[in-house]
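Hi support team,

I submitted a single chain yesterday and got back a structure, but I'm not sure I'm reading the token output correctly. Could someone confirm the output below corresponds to the sequence I sent? I've pasted both exactly as they appear in my results page.

Thanks,
R.
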Amino acid sequence: MHWSFYIVAGVTLLSGVAAMSFRNIVHCALLLAVTFGGLALLFLQLNAQFVAFAQILIYVGAVAILIVFAILLTRGSELPAERLKSVTGWWSGVVIALAAFIAIAKAILASALARQDTTTIPAAAVATIGRDLMDKYVLPLEIVGLLLTAAMVGAAVIALQEKRG
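Hi R., thanks for writing in. Yes, this is the structure output for that exact sequence:
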């Protein structure tokens, strides 16, 4: 493995752990965006350009920014008046997370794909997917765009009606 993989993986893991541990929700949301960005970099290193760009557009560009704006607009950055301390809940969470990690690691190591030595270049590059979207699938792409726009306008109308009521 290349040294850059270890750096990106370390930053991604640290930002993910920090996003779960910090008390300030704004800092947690920003660290979540850093985690999403690190995952996109890992996908780029694995030659999965389309997945990396989708990760950046959908998660970093939309979900993380939506979370930050929702927190800032609802004043959710204020810390709660009382601090919750539950040691048994924390340890049970650690045990469940470790059990899930071990189960997933065993499944990955037992798979046939993990034992393959050959690496193949993916047949569909980002340019090919983009060309196909603009040539063969332009009508479904436009329909999905209109559907998402209608859903966004509908959500805004519902939110405004609830605010007035």
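A quick pointer for reading it: Residues 9 and 137 are 36 Å apart (CA to CA). Let us know if anything else looks off.

Best,
Support desk
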